[in-house]
Design brief:
Layout (H helix, E strand, L loop, with lengths): L1 E4 L3 E5 L4 E5 L7 E6 L3 E6 L6 E2 L4 E5 L2 H36 L5 H29 L6 E3 L4 E6 L6 E2 L4 E7 L1
Antiparallel strand pairs: 1-2, 2-3, 4-11, 5-7, 5-10, 6-9, 7-8, 9-11
Helix pairs in contact: 1-2
Family: Belongs to the membrane fusion protein (MFP) (TC 8.A.1) family.
Protein name: Multidrug resistance protein MdtA-like barrel-sandwich hybrid domain-containing protein
Organism: Hydrogenovibrio marinus
Protein backbone atom coordinates (compact mmCIF):
# COMPACT_ATOMS: atom_id res chain seq x y z
CA UNK A 1 0.00 0.00 0.00
CA UNK A 2 1.25 3.49 -0.95
CA UNK A 3 0.03 6.75 0.62
CA UNK A 4 0.17 10.08 -1.22
CA UNK A 5 -0.62 13.15 0.88
CA UNK A 6 -1.78 16.47 -0.49
CA UNK A 7 -3.34 19.36 1.49
CA UNK A 8 -6.77 18.57 0.04
CA UNK A 9 -6.43 14.92 -0.99
CA UNK A 10 -5.32 11.72 0.60
CA UNK A 11 -4.75 8.91 -1.83
CA UNK A 12 -4.22 5.32 -0.74
CA UNK A 13 -3.31 2.76 -3.35
CA UNK A 14 -3.31 -0.96 -3.08
CA UNK A 15 -2.33 -3.15 -5.94
CA UNK A 16 -5.55 -2.56 -7.94
CA UNK A 17 -7.72 -0.40 -5.66
CA UNK A 18 -7.45 3.33 -5.14
CA UNK A 19 -9.17 5.23 -2.29
CA UNK A 20 -9.43 9.00 -2.58
CA UNK A 21 -10.59 11.05 0.39
CA UNK A 22 -11.23 14.79 0.35
CA UNK A 23 -10.50 16.85 3.41
CA UNK A 24 -11.59 20.46 3.59
CA UNK A 25 -13.29 22.76 6.01
CA UNK A 26 -15.84 25.41 5.26
CA UNK A 27 -16.32 27.97 7.94
CA UNK A 28 -19.08 30.57 7.87
CA UNK A 29 -18.00 34.16 8.13
CA UNK A 30 -20.10 36.60 10.13
CA UNK A 31 -20.30 40.20 8.98
CA UNK A 32 -21.27 42.54 11.79
CA UNK A 33 -22.94 45.74 10.64
CA UNK A 34 -22.69 48.78 12.90
CA UNK A 35 -24.21 52.21 12.79
CA UNK A 36 -22.25 55.33 11.90
CA UNK A 37 -25.05 57.66 13.02
CA UNK A 38 -27.19 58.12 16.12
CA UNK A 39 -30.96 57.80 16.06
CA UNK A 40 -33.83 55.39 16.56
CA UNK A 41 -34.35 52.29 14.41
CA UNK A 42 -37.70 52.99 12.74
CA UNK A 43 -37.90 50.13 10.22
CA UNK A 44 -36.53 46.58 10.09
CA UNK A 45 -37.10 44.85 6.75
CA UNK A 46 -35.65 41.39 7.53
CA UNK A 47 -36.00 38.56 10.03
CA UNK A 48 -33.44 36.27 11.60
CA UNK A 49 -32.72 33.30 9.35
CA UNK A 50 -33.80 35.15 6.21
CA UNK A 51 -31.50 35.05 3.18
CA UNK A 52 -30.54 38.48 1.80
CA UNK A 53 -28.73 39.70 -1.28
CA UNK A 54 -25.98 42.28 -1.37
CA UNK A 55 -27.53 45.77 -1.46
CA UNK A 56 -30.88 44.64 -0.05
CA UNK A 57 -32.55 47.06 2.40
CA UNK A 58 -32.18 45.80 5.98
CA UNK A 59 -33.29 48.68 8.20
CA UNK A 60 -33.70 52.45 8.51
CA UNK A 61 -32.67 54.85 11.26
CA UNK A 62 -34.76 57.97 11.93
CA UNK A 63 -33.20 60.93 10.14
CA UNK A 64 -35.58 63.70 11.29
CA UNK A 65 -32.86 65.63 13.17
CA UNK A 66 -30.48 65.16 10.26
CA UNK A 67 -33.03 66.54 7.77
CA UNK A 68 -33.66 69.60 9.98
CA UNK A 69 -29.93 70.26 10.26
CA UNK A 70 -29.56 69.79 6.50
CA UNK A 71 -32.24 72.43 5.82
CA UNK A 72 -30.48 74.79 8.24
CA UNK A 73 -27.17 74.30 6.44
CA UNK A 74 -28.81 74.87 3.06
CA UNK A 75 -30.22 78.16 4.40
CA UNK A 76 -26.77 79.13 5.71
CA UNK A 77 -25.31 78.48 2.28
CA UNK A 78 -27.97 80.67 0.68
CA UNK A 79 -27.25 83.48 3.19
CA UNK A 80 -23.53 83.25 2.47
CA UNK A 81 -24.25 83.41 -1.25
CA UNK A 82 -26.35 86.57 -0.81
CA UNK A 83 -23.70 88.22 1.41
CA UNK A 84 -21.10 87.43 -1.24
CA UNK A 85 -23.26 89.06 -3.93
CA UNK A 86 -23.68 92.15 -1.72
CA UNK A 87 -19.93 92.41 -1.09
CA UNK A 88 -19.30 92.06 -4.85
CA UNK A 89 -21.51 95.13 -5.42
CA UNK A 90 -19.61 97.03 -2.70
CA UNK A 91 -16.26 96.00 -4.18
CA UNK A 92 -17.24 97.03 -7.71
CA UNK A 93 -18.40 100.40 -6.39
CA UNK A 94 -15.18 100.90 -4.38
CA UNK A 95 -13.03 100.00 -7.40
CA UNK A 96 -14.97 102.40 -9.61
CA UNK A 97 -14.62 105.26 -7.11
CA UNK A 98 -10.93 104.50 -6.64
CA UNK A 99 -10.34 104.47 -10.41
CA UNK A 100 -11.96 107.92 -10.63
CA UNK A 101 -9.75 109.08 -7.72
CA UNK A 102 -12.78 109.84 -5.57
CA UNK A 103 -11.75 107.55 -2.68
CA UNK A 104 -8.50 106.50 -1.09
CA UNK A 105 -6.72 103.16 -1.23
CA UNK A 106 -8.02 102.32 2.25
CA UNK A 107 -11.68 102.15 1.13
CA UNK A 108 -10.77 100.01 -1.89
CA UNK A 109 -8.71 97.62 0.26
CA UNK A 110 -11.45 97.38 2.89
CA UNK A 111 -14.01 96.51 0.20
CA UNK A 112 -11.65 93.88 -1.25
CA UNK A 113 -11.11 92.36 2.19
CA UNK A 114 -14.85 92.27 2.91
CA UNK A 115 -15.43 90.55 -0.45
CA UNK A 116 -12.67 87.99 0.18
CA UNK A 117 -14.10 87.19 3.62
CA UNK A 118 -17.59 86.77 2.18
CA UNK A 119 -16.21 84.52 -0.55
CA UNK A 120 -14.44 82.29 2.01
CA UNK A 121 -17.58 82.14 4.14
CA UNK A 122 -19.52 81.02 1.06
CA UNK A 123 -16.91 78.35 0.16
CA UNK A 124 -16.92 77.06 3.74
CA UNK A 125 -20.72 76.86 3.77
CA UNK A 126 -20.59 74.84 0.51
CA UNK A 127 -18.00 72.46 1.94
CA UNK A 128 -19.92 72.05 5.21
CA UNK A 129 -23.11 71.23 3.32
CA UNK A 130 -21.34 68.69 1.08
CA UNK A 131 -19.77 67.05 4.12
CA UNK A 132 -23.11 66.80 5.88
CA UNK A 133 -24.89 65.51 2.76
CA UNK A 134 -22.38 62.64 2.61
CA UNK A 135 -23.84 61.28 5.88
CA UNK A 136 -27.33 60.86 4.38
CA UNK A 137 -26.63 57.33 3.19
CA UNK A 138 -25.86 56.06 6.70
CA UNK A 139 -29.50 56.30 7.83
CA UNK A 140 -30.46 53.52 5.40
CA UNK A 141 -28.76 50.19 6.17
CA UNK A 142 -28.26 47.86 3.20
CA UNK A 143 -26.67 44.43 3.15
CA UNK A 144 -22.95 44.76 2.31
CA UNK A 145 -22.83 41.05 1.35
CA UNK A 146 -25.21 38.26 0.42
CA UNK A 147 -25.95 35.75 3.16
CA UNK A 148 -28.32 34.78 5.96
CA UNK A 149 -29.41 37.07 8.79
CA UNK A 150 -27.76 35.56 11.83
CA UNK A 151 -28.88 38.06 14.46
CA UNK A 152 -30.70 41.37 14.69
CA UNK A 153 -28.96 43.33 17.44
CA UNK A 154 -31.15 46.45 17.13
CA UNK A 155 -34.85 45.70 16.61
CA UNK A 156 -37.37 48.39 15.72
CA UNK A 157 -37.51 51.06 18.42
CA UNK A 158 -33.91 50.62 19.54
CA UNK A 159 -32.04 53.87 20.06
CA UNK A 160 -28.57 53.95 18.55
CA UNK A 161 -26.40 56.25 20.65
CA UNK A 162 -22.92 56.09 19.21
CA UNK A 163 -20.82 55.06 16.25
CA UNK A 164 -20.43 51.33 15.61
CA UNK A 165 -23.40 50.31 17.73
CA UNK A 166 -24.14 46.75 16.48
CA UNK A 167 -27.27 46.61 14.34
CA UNK A 168 -27.35 43.29 12.52
CA UNK A 169 -25.18 40.25 11.72
CA UNK A 170 -25.06 38.43 8.39
CA UNK A 171 -23.55 34.99 8.00
CA UNK A 172 -22.14 34.26 4.59
Amino acid sequence: MKVFNHPLLKILTWSTFIWVGFTFSAQAQTVKIGSLVAGQVIEVHVKEGQHVKKGQLLMKIDDTRYQAKLRSMEASLQMAKLKLADQKINLDQALDLYDRTVTATRERDAAQLAYDLANQTFEKAKADLAYYQAWARYFVINAPVSGRIKKIDAPKGTTVYKENTPLIQIER
